[in-house]
Design brief:
Shape: elongated
Radius of gyration: 28 Å
Number of helices: 12
Strand content: under 5%
Helix content: over 70%
Number of domains: 2
Structural class: mainly alpha
C-alpha cells in the first residue's frame, strides 16, 4: 500500500508540474505587463514588421491632417520619410514600448480599464507611433498637429480574445498547482519504502516533461507560422510573438531538464549507496568467495 500511494503521488506530482510550469511562464511573460514588454521589445528591431506599423501610424495621421498649401509639400515629405524610416528615429524605441504597453492594457486589463469600449478583438494600438509622427510634423511646420487617440490594428478574432481573457484569469493561479505538486512529492517521500526510488523517478519524469514541453513548443511555433492575425501586420506580429515565446520558454525547458537530470542522478546515487544495497553487495561478494 505504501508503494502504491507513493507511486500515485509521484504521478500526480508530475501532472501538476506539467500544468504549473507553463502557467507560471505565461503569467510572468504574457499576463504581466513588464514581462510582456520585455518579451516583445525585440520586435522593435524587425524592419519588415515595423514598416507595417509605421505605414499604419502614418496613414491614420495623414487621413486626419489637412495642411495648408505652403507646408503641404514639406508635410508630405516628412510623412513619406516616417513611413519608411521611423524605426531609426531616436525617439522610436520609447514609442514602440509605449505601443506594446498600451496594446497589453487593451487586451489584458479590460476595455473599461483602458478607456476603450468598442474593441472586441485582439488589437495593437499604434497611437504612440502616430503621436511621434505628429510631434515631428508639428515641429517641422510650426502648426498644432493633433494625433489620433487610438490607431488599432486587428491581430485576432473575438474568439481568440476570449481565449486571452481566460488565460489572463487562470494563469496567475499557477501557484496552486505548484503547491499541490510540492505537497504530493512530500507525501510520496513520506509514504515510500525506498525514497531513493521516488527521487529517481521524479527526476526521470521531470526530464520527460521537459521533452514534452519542447515538442509542444515546436508545435506552437508551427501554429504561429500558419498565418494567424486579422491583417498582414497583425499576422506578422502573431508569428513573431509565438516565435519569441517559444525561444523564451526554451530557457525554462532547459532548466527543467537539468533539474530532472540532477534529481535522477541523486536518486540513483541514493539507491546505490543505501544500506540495503550495500548489504546486498556484501552478500553477493561473500557468496562469490564461497563459491
Amino acid at each position: 500500500m505504501r508503494t502504491f500511494v507513493s507511486a500515485i503521488a509521484v504521478i500526480f506530482t508530475l501532472l501538476l508540474t506539467a500544468i504549473a510550469v507553463p502557467m507560471a511562464w505565461t503569467d510572468a511573460n504574457i499576463v504581466r505587463e513588464d514581462g510582456f514588454v520585455a518579451l516583445i521589445s525585440p520586435l522593435g528591431k524587425d524592419q519588415a514588421f515595423q514598416s507595417g506599423l509605421a505605414a499604419a501610424a502614418v496613414g491614420s495621421l495623414e487621413s486626419k491632417v489637412q495642411l495648408p498649401a505652403p507646408v503641404e509639400q514639406l508635410g508630405a515629405s516628412l510623412l513619406k520619410d516616417a513611413a519608411s524610416s521611423m524605426s531609426v528615429w531616436p525617439e522610436y524605441p520609447q514609442a514602440w514600448n509605449d505601443t506594446v504597453r498600451r496594446s497589453h492594457q487593451l487586451n489584458f486589463a479590460g476595455n473599461a480599464a483602458s478607456g476603450n469600449t468598442s474593441a472586441a478583438t485582439l488589437v495593437l494600438d499604434v497611437a504612440p507611433l502616430a503621436s511621434l509622427v505628429a510631434k515631428r510634423l508639428a515641429t517641422a511646420t510650426g502648426l498644432p498637429i493633433e494625433a489620433p487617440k487610438s490607431t488599432l490594428i486587428n491581430i485576432g478574432s473575438p474568439a481568440q480574445r476570449q481565449q486571452v481573457e481566460a488565460v489572463a484569469a487562470y494563469a496567475p493561479m499557477w501557484w496552486i498547482a505548484a503547491l499541490g505538486a510540492v505537497l504530493l512529492l512530500a507525501l510520496a517521500l513520506l509514504a515510500a519504502r525506498r525514497r531513493s526510488v521516488v527521487v529517481l523517478f521524479a527526476g526521470l519524469g521531470l526530464a520527460a516533461l521537459a521533452g514534452l514541453w519542447q515538442a509542444g513548443s515546436t508545435v506552437l511555433r508551427g501554429v504561429g507560422d500558419a498565418g494567424l492575425g486579422g491583417t498582414t501586420t497583425g499576422g506578422v506580429f502573431v508569428r513573431e510573438l509565438v516565435a519569441a515565446s517559444a525561444d523564451n520558454f526554451s530557457g525554462w525547458i532547459v532548466d527543467a531538464a537539468i533539474a530532472g537530470g540532477v534529481l535522477a542522478v541523486v536518486g540513483l546515487l541514493m539507491l546505490i549507496l543505501s544500506p540495503k544495497a550495500r548489504a546486498r553487495g556484501r552478500a553477493n561478494a561473500a557468496g562469490s568467495m564461497e563459491g
